[in-house]
Write a structure and sequence with these properties.
The structure is a homodimer.
Chain A (H helix, E strand, L loop, with lengths): L8 E4 L15 H14 L3 E5 L5 H12 L6 E7 L11 H8 L4 E7 L2 H8 L3 H17 L3 E7 L1 H7 L1 H13 L4 E6 L6 H15 L4 E6 L6 H10 L4 E4 L13 H11 L7 H5 L1 H11 L17 E2 L2 H9 L17 E2 L6 H11 L7 H16 L8 H10 L9 E11 L6 E10 L2 E9 L2 H14 L9 E9 L10 E8 L4 E8 L2 H23 L11
Parallel strand pairs in A: 1-2, 1-8, 2-3, 3-4, 4-5, 5-6, 6-7, 7-8, 9-10
Antiparallel strand pairs in A: 11-12, 12-13, 14-15, 15-16
Helix pairs in contact in A: 1-12, 5-7, 6-7, 8-9, 9-10, 14-15, 17-18
Chain lengths: 538, 538
């Protein structure tokens, strides 16, 4: 084992290897936003892209040269020279130099199989390619990180050749030898043994790095094993995005290194931003954050079983491996049929509400059960849960009540699709009846409802719906399936989530939409310390 | 390391610990379906539930006693006796016995912290609870698996006490000591060391088991490390379902053990069913299967980069860690903006289509790019991709063409929500104009379109829409966001997926729906070796 006080350098490749994930792509603007965020997180190196492969990546590097960075150094990635080019004339290497970064990463072949079968050259010729490419980049004044593609598979096939590749790169001036488990199938015990052997041979002369993939669900463990055996440069991506099963997930690697192995990577404050960075990147990527992700997932510290939830009340750390605040996450007690009245009481308290009597707690539990059987799920929609509890109070006066609505979507030959909605609501003693249009039926309802509410509650202008999610519940029923709609909203001060469920997507959307406005108006009224019902109508 | 030819016993807890996952619950029927599937997979033990906790689990055990099993033994799970009960009178232990299983698992405390702070007894009293509970169950003729809760945390806190707990359980007759990383935060290197120490002390006398959680994204690695250090009983869940970040994922553990460590768990044929089992369980669970899951995910062997896709053509195993067929999965080349014309040509070939010229290949690539910029994603919707390619052929005669449609969703005070649709299509030279209703706008469109097609194509009766998924693309835009709709369909022979994208959910649904019928009719016609255009209208 290494000195536990060693430093580890973080190298993020979300913008290059991460976008190999199925369904993921980033615009130039997305890349800039993410790079800024990674810089704030304290990542040492950000691999910005593959300048030889597409113009978007070239634009990114042009921008990165002008930008200023707090912690990060931007790295351009490329391949070694083509087999029948001279390094000086190779377009890939020239694009790599042209990216203008202080550091470049180049990927070369290290497995005898890939050299012969994929590259189609003999083993010595590949060593020349490695040596030429690294030396050329060094002559251009670059620091060079050598990405040893298929290193572990290559080692298992022909250990001497894999070592010769590393020694060639080192001899040509590479600053770091990054051992890549490109196919992601190497076992943790093998990674430990092979990294140790490389470290014993070259570790006193050159830095060793690790780059793993998750094809055997071992990427994080393999990264830790490499660090425990001499690697001090760690590559990965935010949320583990990457081709096939993904890359090593930095959102798990960083806290494992820092909180479990005592190896500092980022400051404590930066570590506390980890959950936010994870969610930010998934938002920019247009991917739903995985709630079950280690450390940063919304469910990572969520307790459902009555049994566990009860113990949690007794001793906070009894069912948590770390304090969630260390990574900016938080513990939650879930509202669900399994969790019983005890957990519901805790939840109601957490929301700052009070249940008058045990009978009322039973009533809430009954209602949750009833709505869950109709497809509701309050675990992610606490605003709707709160409204449901409030509505059980006979004294509750909602800011508005729904009467009717109507929505239409139509396409006629030669015209764009049209959506219109009519909405009728009651505010105090007034009935408001209005209409709106939109680029879809839910957007039309949203616009009509805003219009109806606006005269009484100008605050609706502040309420923005920031996310709209649809989840098909009984998927086996095709287009007759029940759907659950979740809407995230914000008014610039608070954010909240509401839910609706129905076989009719319009009805489910409408319920979540109306809840969102009702909750937003209640919050604003509470902030202003005044009742939510309109005084001037009273 | 153990003898690599050792056997490992698989113990599945999807039906007990798996349902602790946020948002997951199983009906009795669901539990039966999953247990049947696990039996077929060759799992040795199936933990069926917690009979003391709810009536549904008791019903499951009543059914399981009458059912016959090929490979599996059903196990009932429960907690040790309450601190102030005698074992004979403890309701939990009695419920456990009443479940009628040959084997029971009981969970007991092993960490001095939990004994004192959560259970609230002194350390010797907990040893009595362990001894009494195990001995009572043995006297009832049960084989007893001892779940050592918080074993690793307990060991790190007070090693001697954790060992005393194990020795007490062993002394009272436990058949297997299952070491649990209940909070999921233990590092792989620690698991290896602690399991080795337990194995050295007790491994010659009693079987050692392992039960891990994924809170540090290490559950699979920790399971393998335990097996490499003496554990021969392995607990986990299908797809890694479980509380917080989940349990050890058997869909990764099984192939890692069998294909990588050479430790047989199931037959080769059973291993080939793994992908299907994974998807079956996610379907019953009403959860979208994670496409990036190791081994069994739809993207686990999907290649996007032009670079990799090209190498894949040259050498199949060059970018795959195993042959996907071994686990019943398959390799895919993805259609995406990154993959270029080469990959599109391969894809078109895979679909059995032919591109007339390089100009046509360029035309397809252009069209893909154009539609992707409008939110389409063909990676999961190959039927729509095929239709898009066919429509570029001027000789293509579609089975029908859309003219107009119209859909309405309305709620009036006191009435159920109503949805109606009008559809106008052209079949050959005929224009068909009809209407339908449904429990939502898309279902109404589905019904109207079927009605219009039925007279010409009675085969539409066979086409069922088996799944309907909605994905919000630019989530930041609230209810004005673009949505992508995916529809899975089947006609009992073939299954296929279609896609539509629009800011209008109705339009996106309509496009995917119409594609589904068009593709289904084409497939049926191809199977019948006749052109898809209606002969009697020609």
């Amino acid at each position: 084992m290494n000195d536990p006080k060693q430093q580890v350098e973080l190298y993020d490749t979300t913008l290059r290897d991460g976008v190999q994930r199925e369904g993921l792509s980033f615009s130039l603007e997305d890349k800039i936003k993410i790079a800024r965020k990674l810089d704030g997180l304290g990542v040492r190196y950000i691999e910005g892209g593959f300048p030889g492969s597409n113009p978007r990546d070239q634009e990114f590097f042009a921008w990165a040269q002008r930008a200023s960075w707090q912690h990060a150094t931007i790295v351009a990635f490329g391949a070694s020279r083509y087999k029948d080019h001279r390094a000086e004339e190779d377009p890939n290497l020239r694009a790599l130099v042209a990216a203008g970064t202080e550091v470049v990463a180049i990927v070369c072949k290290n497995s005898a199989l890939h050299v012969r079968e994929v590259l189609g050259v003999d083993l010595p010729a590949n060593l020349e390619i490695i040596g030429d490419s690294v030396a050329f980049l060094r002559r251009q004044g670059k620091r060079v990180f050598y990405d040893a593609e298929h290193f572990f598979d290559g080692w298992k096939l022909d250990r001497d050749y894999a070592r010769a590749c590393l020694r060639t790169a080192f001899g040509a001036g590479a600053d770091c030898l990054v051992l890549c488990d490109t196919n992601g199938g190497t076992l943790t015990s093998e990674v430990a043994e092979i990294v140790r052997a490389v470290y014993d041979e070259l570790g006193s002369a050159v830095q060793i790095g690790i780059h793993t993939h998750n094809d055997a669900e071992l990427a994080v463990a393999n990264t830790l094993a490499a660090v425990q055996n001499g690697a001090t440069h760690v590559q990965g991506t935010i949320n583990g995005y990457g081709e096939r099963c993904g890359n090593a997930n930095l959102c798990a690697v960083i806290p494992n290194l820092q909180l479990k192995l005592g190896i500092p990577c980022v400051s404590e404050e930066q570590l506390r931003s980890l959950t936010e960075v994870s969610r930010f990147v998934s938002e920019v990527a247009n991917l739903h954050p995985d709630p079950h992700m280690a450390y940063v997932g919304a469910s990572a510290f969520a307790h459902k079983a009555g049994y566990h939830a009860d113990a949690m009340r007794k001793h906070t750390l009894s069912y948590q491996h770390i304090a969630p605040e260390l990574v900016g996450n938080q513990a939650r007690i879930l509202v669900s049929e399994l969790s019983g009245k005890g957990a519901i009481a805790t939840k109601v308290e957490q929301l700052g509400l009070r249940l008058g009597s045990p009978a009322q707690a039973r009533q809430v539990a009954e209602r949750v059960k009833q709505l869950e059987s109709r497809g509701y799920q309050f675990e992610g929609a606490e605003a709707s849960f709160e409204l449901m509890v409030r509505r059980l109070d006979p004294d509750y006066a909602p800011p508005f009540e729904l009467v009717d609505f109507f929505v239409l979507a139509e396409t006629r030959e030669g015209r764009e699709m049209l959506s219109e909605a009519m909405v009728k609501i009651r505010v105090g003693h007034h009935v408001l009846h209005t209409a709106g249009e939109g680029n879809g039926p839910v957007n039309a309802l949203d616009n009509a409802l805003r219009k109806a509410l606006h005269s009484t509650y100008p605050h609706v202008d502040e309420i923005r719906l920031t996310d709209y999610k649809v989840r098909v519940i009984d998927e086996g029923s095709g287009t007759a399936a029940s759907v659950r709609v979740l809407i995230d909203s914000s008014d610039g001060v608070d954010t909240w989530t509401t839910v609706g469920s129905s076989t009719n997507i319009i009805e489910a959307s409408w319920t979540a939409l109306a809840d969102s406005f009702e909750y937003g108006l209640l919050r604003a009224a509470r902030r202003a310390q005044q009742p939510a019902t309109p005084q001037h109508l009273g």
